[in-house]
Amino acid sequence: MAKKIVTEMSFLDHLEELRWLLVRSTIAIIIMAIATYFISDYLFDVIIFGPTRPTFFTYVFFCDLAHQLGVDSICITDLSFVIQNTEMEGQVNIFVWMCILCGFILSFPYILWEIWRFISPALYHNEKKNARLFIVVSSLLFFLGVLFGYFIIIPMSINFVATFTISDVVVNQFTIDSYIGLVKTSVLAGGLFFELPIIIYFLTALGLVTPQILRQYWKYAVIAILIIAAIVTPPDVVSQTIVALPMLLIYEISILISKLVYKKQKD
């Protein structure tokens, strides 16, 4: 049986460790945010506002795919909307918060390492050896989720809201806050959702979740994922499938991980 290394710490000691975890993580985010400042022109012009242009990679890819499938309806040649700033400090606030967001994304592996250091005293000795694997896998899943949100969720959402109209009288003029809100929500939600297998691993290890429970709620998860895919994509099956399949795959992987952990605990 694996030995568990336990270090006796008081409640205040745990709070002190948590405080320093937050301090060091915040410093890491600030450092990466400052580094982002030096590429801010590329960050905003090419990355953040890239999905507003018909030449964006996702639109071109879907158009080529549509031609191969004999479907022309999802080719995008024009995105008729304007992004405007309506507050005096609006662009300054957006600049600062987007640099902080990028700082958080870039420093995510370090934050995971800090979290591992915080929880490691409660783990078994053999579990502590998995620190490197935990950080690598969790970081990879997070970055894949961020890319999924950026290349799939954001352009699909923009295409939908830009082409949807109730009348020709109405002109789409989106505020920069609403656009940046879409970007932040999509990349963060994508990154955190792709962490689901890791979360399920720990919840199963703690006995809070079982593979039976996950399988029992599988149909509800499928319905929820399909609804999300229908909301953020144009009304065509191809786009909805492209969004829904990776999310369903992540859920299935989470069930598989839960089974492996549950079986190991029973042995």
Molecular structure report:
With 267 residues, the protein is mainly α. 73% of the residues lie in helices and 2% in strands. The chain contains twelve helices and two strands. It has helices spanning 11-37, 40-48, 57-69, 90-106, 108-119, 125-128, 131-163, 176-193, 196-205, 211-216, 218-232, 237-266, and strands spanning 82-84, 173-175. It has a two-stranded parallel ribbon with strand order 1-2. Helix 1 (11-37) packs antiparallel against helix 5 (108-119). The longest helix is centred in the middle third of the chain and has 33 residues, at 131-163. It is globular, with a radius of gyration of 22 Å. The N and C termini lie close together (11 Å). The chain crosses the membrane at residues 21-39, 94-113, 133-154, 187-210, 217-235, 241-262. One of its GO terms (molecular function) is proton motive force dependent protein transmembrane transporter activity.
Name its key features:
globular; two-stranded parallel sheet; 12 helices; mainly alpha; disordered N terminus
Counting copies of identical and different chains, the oligomeric state is single chain
What is the helix content? over 70%
Cα shape: globular
For the residues shown, what is the average pLDDT? 84
- How far apart the termini lie comes to 11 Å
Q: Largest sheet, order of strands side by side?
A: 1-2
Structural class: mainly alpha
Strand content: under 5%
Number of E-type strands? 2
Q: What does the radius of gyration come to?
A: 22 Å
Give unreliable regions as ranges: 1-6
Q: Largest sheet at a glance? A: 2 strands, parallel
Tally of helical segments? 12
What is the string of SSEs from the N terminus onward?
Answer: HHHEHHHHEHHHHH
